[in-house]
Specification:
The structure holds two protein chains of two kinds.
Chain A lengths: L10 E11 L8 E4 L2 E4 L3 E12 L4 E5 L6 H8 L7 E6 L2 E2 L5 H10 E4 L13 H12 L5 H14 L16 H13 L5 E5 L7 H18 L2 E6 L2 H7 L2 E6 L2 E7 H6 L4 H8 L39 H5 L5 E2 L5 E2 L2 H4 L5
Parallel strand pairs in A: 5-10, 5-11, 8-9, 9-10
Antiparallel strand pairs in A: 1-4, 1-6, 2-3, 6-7, 11-12, 12-14, 13-14
Helix pairs in contact in A: 3-4, 3-5, 4-5, 5-6
Chain B lengths: L3 E11 L4 E12 L4 E5 L6 H8 L7 E10 L2 E2 L5 H7 L4 E4 L3 H4 L6 H12 L4 H14 L5 H4 L9 H13 L5 E5 L7 H18 L2 E6 L2 H7 L2 E6 L2 E7 H6 L4 H8 L39 H5 L5 E3 L2 E3 L2 H16 L1
Parallel strand pairs in B: 3-8, 3-9, 6-7, 7-8
Antiparallel strand pairs in B: 1-2, 1-4, 4-5, 9-10, 10-12, 11-12
Helix pairs in contact in B: 4-5, 5-7, 7-8
Classes of the chains: A alpha/beta, B alpha/beta.
Chain lengths: 342, 331
């Protein structure tokens, strides 16, 4: 009975790791320390042991501060970077080991939207050319008029007048360019969209337009999103579930309503309290000690222990394991496990 | 007397074939120790306002008209030599990007001592002592060591603290902060904002905070100006502007925030874009995007009118108030 099997997540990350080498080549690894010549390779630990699943039709948001590895996760999933460890499964099949050629049919299903609409459109291509290119590439058999119709359809669906298609990107405003970038992703009828800070470069009133567009596309096309952002109010609005990353590790994963009403991890709490609210009359956030440590030499134990008010001896030596919470969430924190946080 | 009084300030940019009006008859006052927020979207003229208050508008821009009275003196008419006694000394500015503001080839100490010695007759040792004291005020750990460090050795949050310390070096009366935390993470933004608020309150320093983030304005300021296409369209107490915005644009800006809509529902977007300053529509600049626009709005520019605590430039608001007044009279 195949139908009885629990539904498989569309995308699954298993123990995903990504390290960037800082010292490439033999000479750079040679260091002089304490009167001795030693060989040492330094690495940036961008993503550490990340395990998560993205269900069909959901919008999973990845949040965290700069350097927490959220964009690296997006790039790993899109196949723009190769993982240093772990596995990525899409629709039941492992994809991180596929050749470029074998990846091609998958790229049609999986599209990416980037932060800066000024950089993601080729300035020397008209909108028409930019939008036609992916359609032709993925559907070589399509006739010219069919391609043109497809492009006009998508342009209308993102609210860009098809009669503007002979124009170049510089003739459009930032909000319009981001719509065009979204249109470009939608032209190949993907089922999964990876969006890396898609609205961070836009003004508030334009952010609302683009978010609405992404919500509409989700409903009409049944899209699944992996949405990377640092803006928590957007997450609260857009996300079905949220993953909080800190120094490349997952601190907490929960459905959006639970995370915002009852954050468990001390870092999630601090992060949520730092967002300025309209009804605040003074800053009232949980202050963290110090600053984010460098991901070159990760602290031992919990990645957050150096700044955590609840850190004890165990946190300093033992890395917390993900704990399943009632309601399907997950928290990696010794203090939560031991019930030391009220 | 107010600390700063701006009257009918108009700033233009001379382009090759036309002149663009970036600021159009801006007037506002700032009391001693008062904190004022300037909000609006890109291209509204917020930053130009900040720059012109220090008379930092450079070619092809120029101040076409208006007065900027700082402690009674008109900054617009001042000579460069006189301006130098005010800039950095009585009035300081904090910019968005801390990496660009600090000189990358000078140590923190050199930059702080340079600023102090330019305005005060101090020995190097005394200047360094003041620098260390100010660094301590902004909670920089081990300030003595920082003096010998270069900007690239410090994190973004630390750099912005140092810029605040430099801004405070000469005990100014007014700090103009242009998007001071936009480049920083939320937890660091919260720390910097709290610090800035604490320093302004304890030293009775006036603050003009230029930002696009209404939450930040709400936390930090007592009064707010809302700008659109180079004009002030609404001004008043921050709490009232946020709780009961009058101008349709301010209403739209607040309603467009994701937290104003139930999760997963359509956001209340404002249609269209802000007009380019080279091509501002006739009448009210917001009229093409406004739900309440009538023929009058498309032909005649609304004047900014004061209704008790709040000033608004909108024909519809004016009409509503006139209706109310007429009803009261007949009653």
């Amino acid at each position: 009975m195949k139908d009885m099997a629990p539904e498989q997540p569309l995308l699954e990350l298993r123990n995903l790791e990504k390290r960037f080498e800082l010292d490439r080549g033999f000479l750079e690894t040679i260091k002089f320390r304490g009167g001795k010549v030693i060989r040492e390779k330094r690495e940036v630990h961008a993503v550490n042991n990340v395990t998560l699943g993205v269900e069909r039709g959901e919008a999973l948001c990845v949040v965290g501060e700069s350097g927490c590895g959220k964009s690296t996760v997006a790039r790993l999933v899109a196949g723009l970077l190769t993982p240093s460890g772990g596995e990525i499964h899409y629709d039941g099949a492992r994809i991180d080991t596929l050749s470029r050629k074998a990846m091609l049919p998958l790229r049609k299903k999986m599209q990416m939207i980037f932060q800066n609409p000024y950089a993601s459109l080729n300035p020397r291509m008209t909108i028409q050319q930019a939008l036609e290119e992916p359609v032709r590439h993925h559907n070589p058999s399509l006739s010219r008029s069919a391609v043109r119709d497809k492009v006009a359809d998508v342009m209308r669906s993102v609210g860009v007048d098809p009669s503007w298609s002979k124009r170049y990107p510089h003739e459009f405003s930032g909000g319009q360019r981001q719509r065009i970038a979204i249109a470009r992703a939608l032209t190949v009828d993907p089922e999964f969209i990876i969006a890396d800070e898609p609205i961070s470069a836009l003004d508030v009133s334009i952010q609302a337009q683009v978010l609405n567009l992404m919500l509409e596309a989700k409903e009409q096309r049944g899209l699944t999103y992996l949405f990377i952002t640092h803006d928590l109010s957007v997450v609260q609005h857009f996300g079905t579930r949220v993953v909080v990353l800190y120094l490349g590790s997952i601190c907490e994963l929960a459905d959006t309503a639970t995370l915002f009403s009852n954050p468990k991890h001390p870092y999630t709490r601090a992060l949520l309290s730092a967002v300025p609210q309209l009804n605040d009359d003074k800053p009232n956030h949980i202050r963290l000690k110090g600053e984010i440590p460098t991901p070159i030499n990760l602290p031992q134990g919990c990645p957050f222990q150096s700044r955590c008010a609840y850190a004890n001896e165990r946190c300093r030596v033992e890395q917390p394991r993900p704990l399943q919470q009632s309601g399907g969430g997950m928290v990696a924190c010794h203090a939560v496990e031991e019930d030391r946080i009220d | 007397m107010s600390l700063l009084s701006v009257r009918d300030l108009t700033v233009k940019f001379a382009m090759r074939d036309n002149t663009v009006t970036a600021l159009n008859q801006i007037s506002f006052d700032l009391g001693k120790g008062e904190r004022l927020g300037i909000v609006g979207e890109s291209g509204a003229g917020k930053s130009i306002t900040g720059f012109s208050l220090m008379n930092l508008i450079s070619k092809p821009g120029f101040i076409d008209n208006g007065k900027i009275l700082f402690e009674g003196q008109d900054i617009v008419q001042m000579s460069d030599a006189d301006l130098r006694t005010i800039r950095g000394n009585r009035m300081a500015m904090i910019f968005q990007d801390p990496m660009v503001t600090l000189n990358p080839v000078l140590t923190i100490g050199q930059q702080m001592v340079e600023t102090l010695q330019a305005h005060r007759d101090l020995t190097r040792q005394d200047a360094e002592k003041i620098a260390v004291m100010k660094l301590r005020e902004v909670y920089i750990p081990s300030p003595e060591d920082r003096l010998n460090q270069y900007p690239h050795e410090l994190s973004g949050g630390m750099r912005q603290r140092i810029i605040i310390a430099i801004a405070l070096l000469l005990d100014p009366q007014l700090i103009i902060a242009d998007e001071p935390t936009t480049a920083l993470d939320v937890t660091i933004q919260a720390d910097i904002m709290e610090l800035l608020l604490e320093l302004c309150q304890s030293n009775n320093v006036g603050l003009i905070l230029i930002t696009h983030d209404l939450g930040v304005v709400s936390q930090m300021t007592e009064r707010t100006l809302v700008m659109y296409a180079g004009r002030i369209i609404e001004a008043g107490r921050t709490r009232e502007i946020i709780n009961d915005p009058q101008h349709p644009y301010t209403q739209g800006l607040i309603n467009a925030l994701p937290q104003q809509t139930l999760p997963g529902h359509r956001l209340k977007q404002i249609p269209g874009n802000m007009p380019s300053l080279a091509n501002v529509p006739p009448g009210c600049p917001f009229s093409p995007r406004c739900d309440y626009a009538v023929d009058l709005c498309r032909t005649t520019l609304p004047k900014i009118v004061s209704y008790g605590q709040v000033e608004v430039a909108c024909h519809e608001v004016e009409r509503l108030h006139a209706d109310d007044a007429a009803q009261e009279q007949s009653a």
